[in-house]
Amino acid sequence: MAVASSAVGNVVRAVVAVLVAALVAVTAGLPMTAGNASAGRAAPKPSVKQLKKELAALSKESDRLIEEYYNSRRAQQQAEKTEKSARERLAAAQEVYDRESLQLRTLAVAQYIGGEPNQIALFTGSQNPDVLLSRLALSRHLIDVQDARLRGYAKVRDERRKAEQEAAARAEELGAAVADLEGRKKKAEKLIEKIKDRIDKLYTAPGVRRPDGTWVPQLPDGSENITPRMRLVKTLIKERFVVPFGIGCYRTIQDGGEHPLGRACDFMLSHGGAMPSAAEVKRGYEIADWAIKNSRRLGIMYIIYRQRIWHARTGTWRTMSNRGGTTANHFDHPHISVY
């Protein structure tokens, strides 16, 4: 009975401990999970000063990586040059090798027909000493020619083998240089992306945000006739992306959209309604993805790109009806509207 009483007491104490931990978690504003039952308050968010300090350190590291990247590019170019030279030498040696092999085979066939290996055919059919001497001299000449060709063949064969090995070594070195270069490039790109994300997080859209996450509309101002929120989004995109075909924002045409209200901008990917290049289409997707990623913090209401619209209310893309043209269907630019 004492054992049973002790077991019950242990269970009761365990339940009490869990309830106390839950109370502490609620008091601290933390969700109740097994992992954080005894955890303290979350660490405070970093200040702008701390973020700028971290950005400076990341920028320094990025500069170092970019320098290493260009050093790797130079090493790659040198490896490419060396490998090309080795391939050219190999091709030249192969040509000589093939020619010498053909001549050697021709000589071997001729001597086989003539009675190799003892040159019997040269000394039969005549007893004249002068003829025999002439044939002996011819035999000696053929042997010398054969020896010379054999030596030449051996040299060419060795040169070919050496060039082939060198070409293989240079190709391996080139492959290693390219792999190293790609690794450094990707590392630098990730770090630069991290730096850009940190910069983005230093900015929050101006104005008042409602409890449901939407924002109180603003009036346009300044020479561009756009709202402060739209101006911030435009500025950040210009700093982060190259937009070589221009950015169009305010216009007076009342089309039911946000342009006349100063709450929308078009980030052009081509001129004159032309279909943009593959690289520009990719840039458009990158701008749209960035806008979605930062939509809540920057007060972005919706994005239109390539006949599709993304709205902050739903957080999903949907297809739009055909409006009859490249620009009207937003194939040549992403459109961004803010609250």
Name the helicity range. Answer: 55-70%
Output mean pLDDT.
79
Q: Which CATH-level-2 architecture of the largest domain?
A: Orthogonal Bundle
By DSSP, the count of extended strands is 6
Distance between the termini: 70 Å
Kindly report the spatial arrangement of strands forming the biggest sheet: 1-2-6-3-4-5
The number of distinct helices, counting runs of at least 4 residues, comes to 7
Provide the low-confidence segments as ranges.
1-39
What is the gyration radius calculated from CA atoms? Answer: 40 Å
CATH fold-level topology of the largest domain = Helix Hairpins
Count of separate structural domains: 3
Architecture overview:
By secondary structure, this protein is of the alpha+beta class. It has 3 domains: 43 residues, no CATH class; 154 residues, Helix Hairpins; 111 residues, no CATH class. The protein is built from 7 helices and 6 strands. A 6-stranded antiparallel β-sheet has the order 1-2-6-3-4-5. Strand 3 and strand 4 form a beta hairpin. Helix 2 packs antiparallel against helix 4. The longest helix has 73 residues. The two termini are 70 Å apart. The N terminus is likely disordered.
Secondary structure elements and pairings:
Blueprint lengths: L1 H26 L20 H67 L5 H4 L5 H73 L26 H13 L6 E2 L15 E4 L10 H16 L1 H4 L1 E6 L2 E4 L4 E4 L15 E4 L1
Antiparallel strand pairs: 1-2, 2-6, 3-4, 3-6, 4-5
Helix pairs in contact: 2-4
Descriptive tags:
6-stranded antiparallel beta sheet; 6 strands; 7 helices; 7% strand; alpha+beta; 339 residues
